Request: fold
Amino acid sequence: MLERRQLLQWAGVAALAGAGGAAWVAYGPRRAGAQAGAPFTNYPLDPVDPANFQQKLFMPGAGGPLGVLDVTAPITIKAGAGSFALLPPRESPFLLYQTDYAGKAYQNPILRIESGARFTAVLDNALPEPTIIHWHGLHTPADMDGHPRDTIAPGKRFNYDFTVSNRGGTYWYHTHAHELTAKQAYNGLASFFLIEDDDQRKISKALDLQLGVTDLPVVIQDKRFDGQGKLVYAPSMPDTMMGWLGDIVLTNLTPNAVQTMTPRTYRLRLLNGSNARIYRLAFVTGSTRLGFTVIGNDGGLLERPEAATEAFLAPGERLDVLFDAGQVQPGTDVFLKSLAFEPMENEGGAGMGGMGGMGRMMAGMSSSRLPLGAAFNILKLPVVAGERVVASLPATLSTIKPIATSGAAQRKIELSMQQMRFLINGRSFRMDEIAFDVKRSSVEVWSISNQGMGMPHPMHIHGFSFQVLERLNSPSDHAGMTRFGKGRMVSDLGWKDTVLVWPGETVRIALDFSHDYPGDQIYLFHCHNLEHEDAGMMINFRVQG
Reply:
């Protein structure tokens, strides 16, 4: 339970939920198939109508929900039931990571730690079902990674102890419980893991950034609620195939959020924490797209700043951007939006094995009122009068050494669907099955080909980061974004741990399997559409020591 002070912070959310609660019941989810080809229909708290955006964005503080916790000593994290006051006098149940640290109580804390530091944590499972934590994007020994085989039963605990070897950046942690990841993550078990280093501090100093004020961690999630303001998670078979899509968009657990800005540069650390929804991000005022600067993604800072007007963000991916609110006049309302896109383009291409149109059919059967690829608002950013602050961004942000691929082993990874199951190289997940072996310290180039079905898949690798080399046969409506050579988009630059592979597309990535851990190490490669992951779109690979 949250303290009274924390509950009051959420009162505005409750007011909105209270206003729309009866209408949620009246509208209800559409029947399966009703939304195929139908126009979008306005409903309370829908993210399409800009007038619905009235609730102040919840930002991290020194404790409480999403509190920033500077880790300098061992911590104990309890995974258990909690609640937020989304609809007083009743509270909405959530699943939360809770900890007491240095005299403060935290729920889903933003863990912040120095690169090279030792991280020691105990996970206590206070849930009525098994769970485990995966440190998404972190380079850890396999037994510290949060593999589903390490899922612990209710009342049990798991001890983590590893050195944080990653470069500075925006990472995150979430449940990876066997066949329960989608439900548990959707109900709340996820938060940020921020790593600091000298490069990160240089950016903060150059731009005069303060975490939680001008440096904003923003997790984007789509949810559904019932008439009492409680989360709904009840996927039908089509929802499971498509991935669970919500119809109300939360940023930092705030529906229809507003964050006021003054004429200066802000850093937004954007995390797609949704189960299945892909976002096509842009900053827009009226019908005009505004420029922004990408400085980092999954694996930390890029080598140099890159200008952009739009970028895709798939489940599990992060994008670190700078937005200069001074490029518009005070009194202007800017929206961070998800632009419309065709998620199933290319699905009828070569190699589809007669499955062309399957993705569109499944999309039409989703019970969400907000289709995948629809245009909607995410966050309202009113620009108000204030001192104009202009800061100089360094021309070089960090050093990234390209992986040398001369003589690298070539590996084909094929994503397919057979008998309504999503497969990787013809396999569905088996806990103790090793799909393939790689040699320690070797370099491989993987060609990930999505030729067998009509759905985009965000593919995530555990234990290692990679570099995107090339995109082949990408959807035609991406042409304006593929200006970084060999079909790559701005979100493909730098170090990655998750890459979105569109229908009919092949993405080539380079991986260096060097590590300092003794013996064989077993990691996962899987789709980060969480319903797909739980249904078995996941394989083990072994790095031989």
The domain at 409-544 is CATH 2.60.40.420 (Immunoglobulin-like). The chain is about 10% helix and 40% strand. The CA atoms of residues 323 and 540 lie 39 Å apart.
